[in-house]
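Table 4 source record.
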Amino acid sequence: MSTVVSVPFGIREKGAPFARSSFGRKWRKAREKIGMPEGFRFYDLRHTGNTLAADTGAKTKDLMVRAGQSFERAQLIYQHSHKKHQRNLADGIDAEVRKQRREAAAKARNTQTGWGGARAPERGSSALPTEDSDVREA
């Protein structure tokens, strides 16, 4: 089992949070040092992190807890719909429909042959159901 450690950004060396007035200066200095574009805001990191988390397929409630949000509407900002996601969703629905149709067809075949969902005897076997046999629906 892995442990997730969350380290809050914006904490000074002695453990106190940055003052709002000094945070902007610290952010700009850090941004310039690593070569991020001038217009890149700290909020953009939060947005990117939440968007990537949402792209994993996590449930909205889990994402809300992770981001410290109380309202679903706030989390929906980060849940984008992409063609890739829509394709995966459509493929998943298609696979489930095909599986259910196969199961229904197999059950119908078993019902029509008088086996009612029980395993049919091997080909060439003379084992036929009798009134005393225990044949049940699947």
